[in-house]
Amino acid sequence: MESIEPQSLKKLCLKSLKKSRDLFSTIHSQLAPLDPESKRIRMSHKISVEYEGIKVGSEIVPGQVNSAAVEASGSSTVLAISGPGDSRVSQKGGAQNALVVGPSLQPKTQNDAGVSGKSTSVITASGSSERNFLTSAIMERIPSKWPRPVWHPPWKNYRVISGHLGWVRSIAFDPSNTWFGTGSADRTIKIWDVGSGRLKLTLTGHIEQVRGLAISQRHTYMFSAGDDKQVKCWDLEQNKVVRSYHGHLSGVYCLALHPTIDLLLTGGRDSVCRVWDIRTKVQAFALSGHDNTVCSVFTRPTDPQVVTGSHDSTIKFWDLRYGKTMLTLTHHKKSVRAMALHPTEHCFASASADNIKKFSLPKGEFLHNMLSQQKTIINAMAVNEDGVMATGGALLCTF
């Protein structure tokens, strides 16, 4: 069994403490009060770790460490840490460094170096940083401050909508927020009314399960993609397919619309993200570079204009001007199955079976892990303007 590094153990403890406070604290706007007994135990542990290789004659008690009394001649140095009675130590001559720690538990002898009152223990130490020797152990460390989320009351189930005969693989909302569409493994696309939850329309045309849906904010079009290698454009005024995009060599898993240009992006099992001209059905680019299925994609109006996630555990940034890779992120250890772009901030989140990570844009710097050690494969995620992220996935069971 591999040993856990002390720094890693400290980070895990801090994360566990933060999550426990977020879940169980009744006052979500304030930190939980510190426990004096816990602080005393923590300080005692720090001191024992700091002086593990040194035999100390007495225990250092936090709060009883006074200023060091140094009386030395030549190159000798004496650090005196006084206990009750404020006993002091002086040492003269020689090049020896001495560390004096509190009242000793040993009986006083005649060999003590000029100690009056209670006896003290003299500990020799080498090096030139005696003054800072105790600082790292006794100094109060300020805990790192994680961004505290805004408290939202627990969500409740509003309505259950049923009608599909297979798994619901995709969902997309109309920009007016009056209806939404769902794509299913039963090879149909259903249009539902948001207010009443009633079925308005059923669209048929795919011969395999529908894995992706996207509704245009600039046109009356809806785009769908499925395992039948087909990408279709639906006219929502005529409720029929007006054009299809052919080129994928295997099932299409994801699709996205460029926010400012009439371009459609699709990714699939052929490990390629393809860029289509919506009007002419022409393939503008084939963004190749992934070693496995491209299962998530989103676009931006500025560089990087395209970001793709793949089963090869990487995230790639693409420049649409040249159709080439700008950057490859390798922080995940498992398949990147879902990504979500923040609507107002310059960042995005990516989900994998190991954890959910947050990256900045446009340079792709890793910010922090949003959720670690989860037991779920995240297949879908979304972020609203308030910074609330919703994820959906499949539970992992260990036997």
Automatic annotation (TrEMBL):
Top-level taxon of origin: Eukaryota
Membrane-crossing segments per the record: none
Example of a GO biological process term: mRNA splicing, via spliceosome
One Pfam family, short name: WD40
SMART domains linked: WD40
Keyword DNA-binding: no
A GO CC term assigned to this protein in UniProt: Prp19 complex
WD repeat start and end residues: 161-202, 203-244, 245-280, 287-328
InterPro entries named among the record's database cross-references: Prp46/PLRG1-like, WD40/YVTN_repeat-like_dom_sf, WD40_PAC1, WD40_repeat_CS, WD40_repeat_dom_sf, WD40_rpt
Keywords tagged on the record: Repeat, WD repeat
UniProt record similarity statement: Belongs to the WD repeat PRL1/PRL2 family.
Protein name: Protein pleiotropic regulatory locus 1-like isoform X2
Organism: Populus alba x Populus x berolinensis
